[in-house]
Specification:
Length: 687
């Protein structure tokens, strides 16, 4: 039977529901009003009635209306006013936001993206009841558009007086439904070459509202339509594209947006058995950058990450590995960050200098056009990089206020907002890869790292690994690096002009596209568990190192968690569901390398984590204690502030030179241990 009229379409849907969906309708009716929808898979409709399925794609408004009318006629639906929703549309109907054109208007389509903004849930008028001010009759008017439609006269066919009148809206007699507006942005992984992400406004109604938060990755199935634009009171011929959502699929599984075929899966499993796997993955990370083997190993481990754990008491332990690169100018920090941001699935690259706290985390913004002057929630870079990597360059150039926003995002992996009456918590389950420059231009291995970069120790301690990239003259290394850079430029020039030239060094072992799939597959399917041998190895190393070091604290439990995360990432890299003793050894080697570089107490030749977490070494602490005692003594003897010269003389007797004493006095003043009531004279703040 051809679908010629609305009646025949309703009849066709009624027959379809009676034959194939009776059970589904019954179960949906039992859950009403908690659940208000009958949700069908497109392919189920197509399998039983391809004509209905085709009609749904081409004339969705009419077809969905007919389906909902048919649902009202079915006895099993009872009193429930069920909505008709369809999901899992064919591939031909999955359109990128930037590819939406006029031909898609009025068609049933599907778009993917990231939720950027969300408005509050508001009631929307569906059936309005107006009361005539002259005769008191109640007139019902169905509302279609966003603009309220009032009756032009008191309709006599609804028992009115038939005269033109003024009307009063009766809210208790009218029917309202929930409505919400969201803004969807293209997924960042689809963007390459600095393209600006396109956005689309989507209208949600009824039981679709309230479940979406900024940062969610969703697929929206719905109908594209136009919305009039105005310039003052003049209507323009150009319209805005908006979408009425019919159903929403929230992407629960990580990296669903990266398609992995059976062929890819076979190749991934094959490569995971390669004994040279670790070396090949390392060589695939920024092959044009010379050296930095351990740093590249750590970045490879960060790409795979550890396993997040949800404890029975509701607490969550992060699995992401945070890395900070601190280095001399020209050590390719930014280039490494750029490469990782293009390699990691779901990554965002941003520079600290141009990022605000709201741009990094999230903000409540007042949007006149989108939120009609109300406050809306907008997600920042760390929320958009959820389950991926956020690469933040120039971390030291951020203002302290903006940097403070990172504390909660790094450890708890969520962002709380309390502004303009909006209290919300957004997820930011991403690894952070930061780069910073030393304050004085070059990195000094002998000075505490906290003194050299403009990042507070509390934030530094949240990084699992910190690598200084130093540039020291070394004849052999310099020769090799110069050859590598010159070859890279020569290769680049030849490659540009499409001449055949193969330099093995410049070629990644795995091409970036395949490596992205490998990482996505590992993160989606592999969740390694520690073996007893691996646990014993990490425990033994941790306890021994703490026992050996009597005067300093080499590790804290935070470093112990870093060992576990890195060991898990190592197992995940070779697609293993168990963390072996070799993985534990690899984790120990990486953490040991980082602590040798930035957490070494040079004079005692032991690790001291306080150098990173407080910025004060054991030797400095001891000397500060001596100076504190000297100031206390002088103040007690003279009953006046201690003169700086007297402090220096007494400190020299304890074996300190003048320069060291002056530096320590300045540091103690900054730390608030001492203060200067008169120029050149000091007192202790605690007395």
């Amino acid at each position: 039977m051809a679908i010629s009229s609305l009646e025949s379409l309703i009849e066709k849907w009624e027959r379809f529901f009676q034959e194939y969906c009776k059970d589904k309708i019954e179960s949906a009716s039992l859950l009403y009003p908690e659940k208000k929808s009958l949700v069908l898979d497109y392919w189920d409709i197509d399998r039983h009635d391809s004509e209905l399925a085709e009609h749904l794609l081409e004339r969705p408004y009419k077809t969905i209306y007919a389906a909902e009318e048919a649902l009202k006629l079915i006895e099993t639906a009872g009193e429930a006013l069920l909505r008709f929703r369809v999901r899992n549309l064919p591939e031909s109907r999955k359109i990128e936001i930037r590819d939406l054109r006029a031909v898609h208007l009025g068609k049933f389509i599907s778009v993917d993206g990231l939720v950027k903004k969300v408005t509050e849930v508001r009631p929307k008028l569906e059936d309005a009841a107006f009361q005539c001010q002259k005769c008191g009759a109640i007139i019902k008017v169905s509302q279609e558009e966003n603009i309220l439609i009032e009756p032009s006269e008191c309709y006599s066919d609804q028992g009115g007086c038939g005269r033109k009148s003024s009307f009063k809206l009766l809210t208790e007699e009218s029917r309202f439904i929930d409505s919400q507006k969201i803004e969807l942005q293209e997924s960042p992984e689809g963007l390459r070459g600095g393209a600006q992400p396109m956005r689309l406004v989507i209208y949600l109604e009824d039981d679709l509202v309230g479940d979406i938060v900024p940062g969610d990755r969703i697929t929206v199935n719905g109908v594209l339509r136009v919305q009039a634009r105005r310039s003052g009171r003049i209507k323009l011929t150009e319209f805005n594209k908006v979408m009425d959502a019919n159903s929403i699929e929230i992407k629960e599984q990580a990296f669903e947006e990266i398609a992995i075929s059976e062929e890819d899966e076979k190749k991934i499993k094959e490569i995971s058995q390669d004994p040279m796997l670790y070396e090949k993955i390392r060589k695939s990370i920024a092959p044009t950058i010379y050296g930095l083997e351990v740093e590249k190993d750590a970045l490879a481990l960060q790409l795979f990450g550890g396993v997040p754990k949800l404890m029975p008491d509701g607490t969550r332990t992060r699995g992401d590995i945070h890395i900070l690169l601190v280095g001399d100018p020209g050590t390719a920090k930014s280039q490494l960050l750029r490469y990782i941001s293009q390699l990691a699935p779901r990554s965002i690259y941003t520079s600290g200098k141009s990022s605000s706290a709201a741009g990094l985390t999230a903000s409540a913004v007042r949007s006149d056009e989108f939120g009609e002057g109300r406050w809306t929630l907008e997600a920042g870079a760390l929320v958009l990089a959820d389950l991926g990597i956020a690469c933040v360059d120039e971390l030291d150039k951020m203002t302290p206020k903006d940097r403070d926003a990172l504390h909660q995002a790094m450890e708890q992996q969520e962002i709380s907002i309390a502004k303009a009456g909006i209290n919300a918590t957004l997820k930011s389950r991403c690894a952070l890869l930061g780069a910073a420059n030393p304050k004085f231009g070059r990195f000094d291995e002998y000075a505490p790292i906290a003194d050299q970069i403009n990042i507070p120790p509390a934030l530094l301690s949240r990084f699992d690994l910190i690598f200084p990239l130093t540039d020291k003259p070394d004849k052999e290394r310099d020769e090799a690096m110069a050859s590598h850079i010159l070859e890279a430029h020569k290769y680049g020039e030849m490659f540009e002009h499409e001449k055949e030239l193969e330099i093995e060094k410049m070629k990644p072992a795995f091409d970036p596209e395949f490596l992205r799939k490998y990482i996505a597959y590992a993160k989606r399917n592999i969740f390694p568990i520690l073996t007893d041998e691996a646990m014993e190895k990490i425990k033994e190393y941790y306890v021994d190192m703490r026992a050996k070091s009597k005067e300093t604290v080499p590790f804290t439990p935070r470093q112990l968690e870093a060992f576990i995360r890195i060991a898990e990432a190592s197992a995940r890299m070779r697609l293993s569901n168990v963390v072996s003793a070799e993985d534990a050894e690899r984790a120990i080697k990486v953490v040991e390398y980082y602590l040798t570089k930035v957490g070494m107490e040079r004079e005692l030749q032991t690790f001291n984590i306080d150098i990173i977490t407080t910025g004060i070494s054991k030797t400095q602490k001891d000397r500060m204690r001596i100076i504190t005692d000297i100031i206390r003594e002088i103040c007690h003897e003279t009953d006046a502030p201690a003169p700086v010269e007297e402090i220096i003389i007494r400190a020299q007797e304890e074996g300190m030179d003048r320069d060291t004493v002056e530096k320590l006095l300045s540091k103690m003043r900054k730390e608030g241990i001492i203060f200067e009531p008169k120029h050149g004279k000091y007192r202790l703040t605690s007395e």
